[in-house]
Design a protein that fits this description.
This protein is an alpha+beta fold. It has 13 helices and 10 strands. The chain has helices at 10-23, 27-30, 58-63, 66-79, 83-94, 121-124, 154-167, 174-181, 185-198, 225-235, 254-263, 273-279, 351-363; strands at 113-114, 119-120, 129-131, 148-150, 281-283, 293-296, 309-315, 318-321, 331-334, 341-346. It has a 6-stranded antiparallel β-sheet with strand order 5-10-6-7-8-9, with helices on one face. A two-stranded antiparallel ribbon has the order 1-2. Strand 1 and strand 2 form a beta hairpin. The longest helix has 14 residues, at 10-23.
Length: 364
């Protein structure tokens, strides 16, 4: 697709190169291009916790059945994925349940898919209708509160689709999540185009922490060289999967990534969340800084003074976390909006770590 630069003049050559750069830009990159690139539009909101809300376009409102639109928005917000991406999947798969093809309202199609969001029965959980309080392995979900995960029920199917997209990278890496949903890049491209048309802005927006324009110079802003190196290690693990008990290099759990980030600079701290909580010196909310740990009353075996989840603070309001197996890859997220937040600690002020730091300084 590339043509050789024109030799007529340097100005024409430069213009041609810039034009080619725009033309060959991938759809994935285009979703993150700021509005000022094309002239006009709202700037990206980079505030921690800023909600990247999206209004429905006129064409979206006329094409999506009201009940389906309500479900896309409700379950998209609940799970944390873009509603217009959910809607685009529903459109591409079955025209929002309006298709009369086999497998949409009963049975399966030639590939074994069923329902308005076209789940494979095996991916749904092994059966088309599953009591959600039973044991099963799949995305069967109860979106209407009747206790049954019914692959043909739009409320259930849309909630299940939201969970699947979230598990595989959305809302940050939407294209990756869509590729897992249907392993064809042409499918991903088609869904992204539809999703853009359904949004009033014409975009598929991503959270601020995934927006390149919002990347802070986190490492450079760290208070010390040791903290900079800890952050450098942790941030480099973004995109890797969660694994219970994992300490890398391919996957981590919440405390494992922190343990290894400290290990990377020669510092030893407890391995588990339960051990890390009493280890560091407590820090008052608002006084936390990069390198501190933020704890949450979440997960099995947790209690008022026994947190089960931890993140590494990278700047005020932001942390690196490996959250859970179904929560998507390791990423930078916000913590101010978490209702289960318990408190902050500073491992670097633990007497044992201070002694380790002295020894490290003496060996430099």
């Amino acid at each position: 697709m590339r043509s050789s630069p024109s030799k007529v003049s340097l100005a024409i050559g430069v213009a041609a190169i810039l034009l080619i750069g725009v033309v060959i830009m991938s759809p994935m990159m285009m979703t993150s291009v700021p509005s000022f690139f094309g002239g006009g539009g709202d700037p990206v909101d980079c505030r921690p916790g800023a909600v990247q809300g999206e209004e429905v376009s006129d064409s979206g409102a006329s094409d999506i059945p009201p009940k389906f639109l309500e479900l896309y928005k409700k379950h998209g917000e609940k799970i944390g994925v873009q509603w217009n991406v959910l809607a685009a999947v529903g459109k591409r798969e079955t025209d929002h349940g309006r298709s009369d093809l086999p497998g949409v309202k009963s049975g399966t199609n030639y590939a074994g898919a069923a329902g308005p969001m076209q789940f494979l029965i095996s991916t749904w959980g092994g059966k088309a209708q599953i009591p959600v309080d039973s044991e099963y392995n799949g995305y069967a979900s109860d979106g209407d509160g009747d206790g049954i995960g019914d692959v043909y029920n739009p409320a259930d199917a849309i909630l299940g689709a939201a969970k699947m997209l979230k598990r595989n990278g959305a809302p940050e890496n939407v294209r990756r999540a869509l590729f897992v949903y249907n392993r064809a890049w042409w499918y991903v491209d088609q869904v992204m185009v539809i999703a853009g048309k359904y949004a009033k802005s014409g975009q598929v927006k991503v959270p601020p922490q995934a927006e390149p324009l919002c990347d802070e110079p986190l490492i450079e802003a760290a208070p010390t060289d040791v903290v900079r190196r800890i952050l450098d290690y942790a941030l480099a693990q973004r995109g890797k999967p969660y694994l219970w008990g994992g300490t890398g290099p391919d996957a981590y759990d919440c405390s494992g990534i922190i343990y290894m980030a400290y290990q990377s600079v020669g510092l030893s701290i407890p391995r588990t969340t339960f051990g890390q909580w009493p280890f560091g010196v407590r820090v008052s909310p608002g006084e936390e800084q990069a390198g501190d740990l933020v704890f949450f009353n979440a997960g099995p075996g947790t209690g008022p003074d026994n947190p089960g989840h931890v993140g590494l603070v990278v700047s005020k309001g932001k942390m690196v976390e490996a959250r859970c197996r179904l929560c998507g890859p390791i990423k930078v997220t916000t913590y101010d909006d978490r209702t289960s937040l318990m408190g902050f600690t500073r491992p670097l002020q633990n007497p044992a770590v201070l002694e380790q730091l002295k020894k490290l300084q003496n060996t430099l």
